[in-house]
Every structure is written in C-alpha cells, then in structure tokens.
Specification:
This protein is mainly alpha-helical. It has two domains: 66-94, no CATH class; 97-280, Four Helix Bundle (Hemerythrin (Met), subunit A). The chain is built from seven helices and two strands. It has helices at residues 79-89, 101-123, 140-159, 192-211, 215-218, 237-264, 273-280; strands at 72-73, 76-77. A two-stranded antiparallel ribbon has the order 1-2. A hairpin with a 2-residue loop joins β1 (72-73) and β2. The longest helix has 28 residues, at 237-264. The termini are far apart.
C-alpha cells in the first residue's frame, strides 16, 4: 500500500491502476478526466463539483444530497422538480426562505417546534448512543454542537459583530481552518442537557435579533468580526439568518435519519435507557 502525502501529482496518468478502497482527503481533482472507470461504491463527502460533466455513464443506483443549484439529467434540469417535491413532503420547508421580519420569526418558531420533537426522540436513547456516529456522520451531540458554532459564526460574529462569540463546546465543520481561540474539541463528551443549555442561550440571542428586526434591519450590510467569513462580501442580516435557518433545517433532517437507525437496531442488553438508568442508580 502506497501513501501519497503532501505530494504534487498534477498531470499524472493512471492507466489500468487499481485504486479500490483508497482514501482521498483534501485532494484537488480540478480539471481531471475520468474515462472508463468503475466508481461503484464511491463515496464523496464535502466535495465541490462545479462544472462536472458526465456522459455515457450507467447509474443504476446513486444518491446525491447537498446544496444543488443546477443538475441536468438527460437534458432535464431536475432541481426545480426536486425542490417542489421536497416542499410537498415537508410543507414547513417553504418557510425556511423568508423575506420579511414576520417570516423570519415564524421560521425560527417552526424550527423550535420541530426540534422539540427530535430532542424527545433523542432522550429515548441511552446517553452513550447520543455520542455514536452513524455511517461516519456526526453524532447527535456533535450535530447540536455544530449548530452552536453556526449560530456563533453567523449571528454572533457577523450580525452582532462579536469578535469572540464562541463557547467551548462549539464545533466547526470538519474541513474548517484551525483558528486560534476557536474551540475545536473532538473528544469532549458533554451530556445532552449541557449542549441544550448552550443551545438555549444561542436561541435567546437570535430571538433578541428577531424581536427588534425591521425590513430595513434585514437589509443592513454586515461583515464578519471573526476569522470565519471575513472575506465574504455582500452580506446582509437576512442572508446571515437564512444560513442559520438552512443549517438548522438540514441538520435536523440528518439527525432524524440517524436517530431512526439507532432506534431501529436490535436492542442489546445494557444498551437501553432503562439499563443506563439502573447503572446510574
């Protein structure tokens, strides 16, 4: 097994090479050409696929999830069809793109209601299961910690211009740059109540913004006071709040998906909430 680390292989040709089960992390494939390749079982996470063109491909089974602006399949842009179907399945989804203060207040209140149900499901699991990753995705606790980071970044750091809005439990996205002073503890295992307490504080901060929000306030131009999004331009309060809404909406769906996996698997002795309660008694 060969290890290629910190090497420039740009312009290389791989002909009749077996790369099965290889791992590509922080790899640049810009402008690469893939011809007559077997990509069965390929998994791409946190990829950027702008301008990708595939022709003559066989796709018997493929799943795509993410922020998709345009996706043409056999000459048909399927994104509007997918968006319409998602809104039909989840009517609350249409509320996540508000344009006025009342709409933003309704959107966050809707998320409060939906997340309350999700948290109720999480409480039915053993505490250790809330730290368990499903299919290498974030655990439920990590998901809540990341949402805390999103609130701190976009509301605290941009809308409120706080240069240090972080909490020790905040969790940036996996590929985020390491920035001095920004917490990034992958090993800490806080309880659900601990992360929910931080979450309540962050929600109160957002509510403070919403309570005083006006149409003019939504259009107010803002810049980041932290190292994150410092180079972003054309930001206004409305855009920042929509980012948080999107993060909250999407990560709740991920959480619901993974909680269902944890709840549906065969119950093992010593792995149930009742067993956990008896151990702590």
């Amino acid at each position: 097994m060969t290890d290629f680390t910190e090497q420039d292989l740009g312009g290389s040709t791989f002909l009749r090479v077996d790369l099965s089960r290889s791992t590509f992390r922080e790899v640049r494939l810009t402008g690469a050409t893939v011809h007559d390749a077997d990509l069965s079982g390929l998994r791409v996470r946190s990829g950027w696929l702008d301008g990708v063109r595939m022709s003559g491909v066989g796709v018997p089974d493929m799943e795509i999830s993410g922020d998709i602006g345009r996706l043409v399949v056999n000459g048909v842009d399927v994104v509007p069809l997918v968006e319409a179907e998602l809104d039909r399945r989840m009517p609350e989804r249409a509320l996540m793109s508000p344009s006025d203060p009342a709409g933003f207040r309704e959107a966050f209140a809707t998320l409060d209601r939906l997340w309350a149900g999700t948290v109720d499901k999480a409480r039915r699991l053993a505490p250790d299961e809330l730290h368990e990753q499903v299919d290498d995705e974030w655990s439920f606790i990590e998901t809540l910690r990341h949402l805390g980071f999103a609130h701190a970044c976009w509301v605290g750091g941009v809308v409120l211009a706080d240069p240090s809005p972080w909490h020790p439990l905040d969790l940036p996205w996996d590929e985020a740059p390491v920035v001095e002073g920004v917490p990034w503890d992958r090993d800490v295992r806080p309880s659900l109540d601990e992360v929910l307490a931080v979450r309540a504080e962050r929600r109160a901060t957002v509510q403070g913004v919403l309570d005083d929000l006006t149409d003019e306030g939504l259009r107010r131009e803002v810049v980041s006071a932290t190292a994150f999004m410092a180079d972003a331009r054309d930001l206004d309060v409305a855009r920042c709040l929509r980012v948080v809404l999107t993060e909250e909406w999407e990560h709740r769906l991920f959480a619901e998906r993974d909680l269902a996996v944890l709840q549906d698997r065969p119950l093992q002795v010593g792995n149930s909430p009742a067993a956990a309660d008896s151990r702590g008694a």
